[in-house]
Amino acid sequence: MSGDGVNGGTGEGTRTDTGAGVGTGEAETGTAARLQKLFEGHRLTPTQRRIAHCMVRRAADAPFLSSVELAELAGVSQPSVTRFAVALGFDGYPALRRHLREVAPAGKPGDTGSYNEYQQAVHAEIDNLRHLAAAFADPSPVIEAGRLLAASRPLPVLGLRAATAQAAGFTYFARKVHPDVRLLDEGGTMLTDRIDAAVHAGATALLCFALPRHPREVVDALAYAREAGLTTATVADSAFAPVAHHTDLLLPAPVGTGLAFDTACAPMLLGRVLLEAMCDALPDAQARLEEFDAQAVARGLFVE
Q1: Residues of the chain with pLDDT under 70
Q2: Is the Cβ–Cβ distance between 249 and 141 less than 8 Å?
Q3: Does domain 140-298 have CATH number 3.20.20.80?
Q4: Which end of the chain is more exposed for a tag (fewer CB within 10 A), N or C?
């Protein structure tokens, strides 16, 4: 299998089982946060970003992986791993691994206990939500994004392939409080036309949902949107995703990779949090919601 959102191809969606059982979530979240801090501020090549992304996704195991194992997991060459460590300021990969072991919390990596693969996938998603909760300790990026989205009239929302559902879900609810939300869920030559139309209508920002495997069209569309003058905010699976360089405000939310197809509970929840932040920035949001509820009752829209 090699389609988008499939764990088994050679792209960003390559299967990397988290091996996270009960009791490993907090430790893995802490290690992932330390890895993110370690990588921040370094100008990494696309190959090196791929290695960094892999290490964050395998945070619990990262301090114990050999350079050969890490290279295989990331789909790169072993010398690339060595160059990656040097780019971070270490003498080589052994020095990087020693550093990770010194700062890693105690505990055996990959301790899955007696849980089957389906249970492990659920626990891995719980860990992803814990990681997202920890990121919300600083709510300023989400608050900033909410203000950007609320102020853009219209508001284009981009999501292709695996991310289409996330973009459509956000758009469905956003239309209840925002006067003009435009879903961009189809690629091709019409995509840039629709971005142009939004800009000409007065749009100032674009929200993008970008999930693995990352379509080239999404990267190109974000680059085009910025050239057209839009401020781009992107929900992505990692701060090292290919869309990072074309995004003004990146909001990471990890995806689960323990099943044949990626699971995206954290990106979905982040989308709902963005909706809340956008509502807080729209003075008439509550009135619009109450108006909709009154109309729904009058029309018998929902079954009690």
Answers
A1: 1-30, 104-114
A2: yes
A3: no
A4: C
